[in-house]
Structure formats: structure tokens, C-alpha cells
Specification:
The protein is α+β, with helices and mostly antiparallel strands. The protein is about 30% helix and about 35% strand.
């Protein structure tokens, strides 16, 4: 699970961009006929290492998206981005969705599908290889991707814990 140390305290000075991942139309059959409602999942990020996700439900699509954005702003975490990619490989699972994210060399681009791509681009990662295994449910994929990113350790933290220089961490 994502540590408390990764949580972002204040959102007032951040310029967050939101990306709609999925909209789900839900039908409830009542005595008077069918009632439609909408559930929207949104990812917000500043494209500089901060990301969050939110779920909003309402009778109209625009209201559901607005609620999801507000919810996402309450769930922000900080991700270590090193030279446009992630510092190391990470595997995570949420529900039936499993995700594998690997660092990539400069110029590779974001090799990821749908829901994972929205999360990775919102963080500000420009070069990464990502694979989704198992369920393709966008809700679980977003949560698994954010869980994987939340478990990443920055090279500076690793170097400090080991008592060596950052260059030695990457040489092995």
C-alpha cells in the first residue's frame, strides 16, 4: 500500500491537469422505468511527479466528472521520476489487475495502454514500458498502476539508505 510519506499535503499551489479514464453508465430499473446514472474515473496530475485518482457518481456525466476531479485532488501522491522515466522495475496488483512497469531509455515514449497511459502521462513520465496482465477493468488498472508507482523508491533515497553515491546505485 502507498506510504503516508508519499502523500501531498497542500494542493493550492499545484497546477493539476485532469484526464478522463472511463465513464460507466449504470441503469436502475424502477417502477416508473429505467433510471440512468454515471460513474466516472479521473486521473489528475501536474506532469511533474504528482498524481491522484478519483471516482465520481451522479445523474449527469459532467457532474460525475466534476465529483471525480474533486475526489482525485484529495488523493495526491508524489512519485520519484528520474530523467523522464522511473528509477526501477515495479510489479503491483489490485483486484484482478496486475501491472508491470519498467524504466526505458530516452526516446522510447510511453508504451502503455488506456488506463495505464493516462496515469503515467499525468505523472510526467515520458519513457516507460508498461504491461497490464489479468483484468482490463479501468478502475482496477488505475489503482494497480498508482500502487506500483507509490512503491517506487527514488535513487537518492536508496543511495542515502545504503550510504553510497547515486552513481554507484545505478552501476550496481
Amino acid at each position: 500500500m502507498i506510504g503516508v510519506y508519499n502523500r501531498v499535503k497542500s494542493t493550492s499551489d499545484l497546477e493539476l491537469k485532469d484526464r478522463l479514464v472511463a465513464i460507466n453508465r449504470v441503469t436502475k430499473v424502477t417502477k416508473g422505468g429505467r433510471t440512468f446514472s454515471f460513474a466516472a474515473i479521473v486521473v489528475v496530475g501536474n506532469e511533474d511527479g504528482i498524481v491522484g485518482w478519483g471516482l465520481g457518481k451522479a445523474g449527469e456525466v459532467t457532474t460525475a466528472i466534476a465529483k471525480a476531479v474533486e475526489s482525485a485532488k484529495k488523493n495526491l501522491i508524489r512519485i520519484p521520476v528520474h530523467k523522464g522515466t522511473i528509477p526501477h522495475e515495479q510489479l503491483a496488483k489490485f483486484g484482478g489487475a496486475k501491472v508491470l512497469i519498467k524504466p526505458a531509455s530516452h526516446g522510447t515514449g510511453v508504451k502503455a495502454g488506456g488506463a495505464m497511459r493516462a496515469v503515467l502521462e499525468s505523472v510526467g513520465i515520458t519513457d516507460v514500458l508498461a504491461k497490464s496482465k489479468g483484468s482490463s477493468n479501468p478502475h482496477n488498472l488505475v489503482k494497480a498502476t498508482i500502487a506500483a508507482l507509490g512503491e517506487l523508491r527514488s535513487p537518492f533515497t536508496v543511495a542515502q539508505n545504503r550510504g553510497v553515491s547515486v552513481e554507484k546505485v545505478f552501476r550496481g
